Amino acid sequence: MTKRDYSLLGPDAERAVETGLATAEWYHTDIPRKEMKALMQRSDQPAIRDAVILFGSMILIAGIGIALWPSWWSAPFWLAYGVLYGSAMDSRWHECGHGTAFKTPLMNNVIYQIASFCMIRNPVTWRWSHARHHTDTIIVGRDPEIVAMRPPALFRIFLNFFGIVDALNGWMRMIMNAAGHLDSEEATFIPEQEQHKVIGVARVWVLIYLATIVLAVAMHSILPLMVIGLPRLYGAWHHVMTGIMQHAGLAENVLDHRLNSRTVYVNPISRFIYWNMNYHVEHHMFPMVPYHRLPELHEKIKHDLPAPNTSILDAYREIWPALKRQLRYEDFFVKRELPGSARPYREDLHEQALSVPAE
Questions:
Q1: Confidence of residue 350 (pLDDT cuts 50, 70, 90)
Q2: How confident is the model at residue 353 (pLDDT cuts 50, 70, 90)?
Q3: 312 lies in a domain?
Q4: Which pLDDT band holds residue 2 (cuts at 50, 70, 90)?
Q5: 105-119 and 45-68 are packed helices; what angle lies between their axes, rounded to 10 degrees?
Q6: If DSSP codes are grouped into helix, strand and coil, which group holds residue 123?
Q7: What is the C-alpha to C-alpha distance for residues 166 and 333, in angstroms, rounded to an integer?
Q8: Alpha-carbon torsion angle 202, 206, 208, 211, nearest 10
Q9: Which of 105, 149, 317, 320 is most buried, with most CB under 10 Å away?
Q10: How many CB atoms lie within 10 A of CB 288?
Q11: CB contact set of 227 (below 8 Å; sequence gap of 6+)
């Protein structure tokens, strides 16, 4: 079995550079330039509509939760608020970070800053982290956003359904940054001229959290923390559930998103929370296509892609057995079969990924 070092400072990082996997050219489905240009056109209207629905719902639901506090009748409202705070903000952080959700840059940046705060992801750090994720998707030693490593840390993944590991790491990183320090791995992908911004944002966040805690102490109630902070824990489950679907159990160290990313058909509510990121192969192939055009992009290129999973449950029927096998045999992965209408995988780039290893 291949032993992997997922750190950005280890031997696999060096190997990725030496073998040409780092910052390489990826496969893209052919699509006429005129059609691609039309798909990449940005618009404020869809994202404004969704932002009004999201923030309006959050204000209304939190207001009802506060009015019913501390009765248990408030619990369903806090659970709903938590999903919007701790999960819907994940996709808003993601799309606005790409700068594609709105046509107006200021709107993208405002929502990006709010969503970054809710998800406890420093907006400077994570802008560069996610750029690396797209440049070197699931390349071991290069991608800082691999969720399901091999062998998979299933207990850690379980804890993250309650936000425990990621949120605690976020708060610890925030305090470290506020003290004027960067993590050594962060420094590998954040340009030196941007690093002071990481520290400045972290210090503002610390002040917001301190004000919230002081208010909670003064009120002798955790109610302020139910609005700011705690929803990152009790509302995380949906973004973890959908995030695992993106790449878990698939091939590593390949240069074709059809091999390492997964498209899943999901219900309308999850699509709103997830902002169409269930079309994940399409998003990685063409990351500058706005979220509201991804269903259209999917229809144009699905002849060249593996068949989507038909539901969240169907995706987990594929993912769970794969993760269990990877506990025993780290080299196992699910090979995404292509339809007869698709261009084949390049054997010269993906020789190891074209035959699933046997135990």
A1: low
A2: low
A3: yes
A4: confident
A5: 30
A6: helix
A7: 25
A8: -170
A9: 149
A10: 12
A11: 62, 66, 212
